[in-house]
Amino acid sequence: MHSLLRPACLVVVVLMMTGCNDPVTIPTTPTPNPTTETFTGTLTVSGGVTHPFSAATLGTVSATLTNIGPDENPTVGLMLGTWNGSACAVVIPNDAAMRATVVIGTVNQAGQLCVRIYDVGRITTPQDYEITVVHP
Predict the structure, then answer these.
(1) Strand pairing category for 102-107 and 88-97
(2) How far is the C-alpha of 114 from the C-alpha of 80, rounded, in Å?
């Protein structure tokens, strides 16, 4: 009886080992293509301008002060925040933004966001600006 049991046990062990070599497949969630929006306007002395936008899902959001002038690279405030329909609540501010400054954050869920540019007391004439926002 032992002589018949040994080959049967060997077959069971070999079958179990081949099952262990199967690759594990982990399902992935498709990553949506990010949306790029460009906002332009004029920042006045002691003023601020808010631009709301919507994030469709979670992910990274960035706001870049792509251009500002006519002054030679003035210092202003640039921030990302949450939009409640009438105001932009500060989440990530940079009070020393200049041309090419990037503010980056993470969106935890779909929702209403905003980018705001504002005078921090350093401009003496109105400044035309361009902000590029990339978001999920």
Answers:
(1) unpaired
(2) 6
Distance CA 74, CA 100 (A): 11
Of how many residues is the chain composed? 136
The CA distance from 80 to 122, in Å, is: 20
Q: Is the Cβ–Cβ distance between 126 and 34 less than 8 Å?
A: no
Q: 12-52: per-residue pLDDT in tens?
A: 333 334 444 445 444 444 456 899 999 999 999 999 999 99
Please identify which residue in the block is written with the tokens 């980018």. 115
The per-residue pLDDT for 129 is: 98
C-alpha triplet 120, 85, 30: angle, nearest 5°: 95
Query: Which whole-number Å values give the CA distances from 32 to 24, 75, 81, 107, 136, in the listed order?
Result: 24, 34, 22, 13, 7
Task: Compute the distance between CA of residue 13 and CA of residue 125 in angstroms, rounded to an integer.
Answer: 81
For residue 38, give the 3-state DSSP assignment. strand
Instruction: Please provide residue 69's backbone torsions phi and psi, each rounded to the nearest 5 degrees.
Output: 175, 175
pTM for this prediction: 0.77
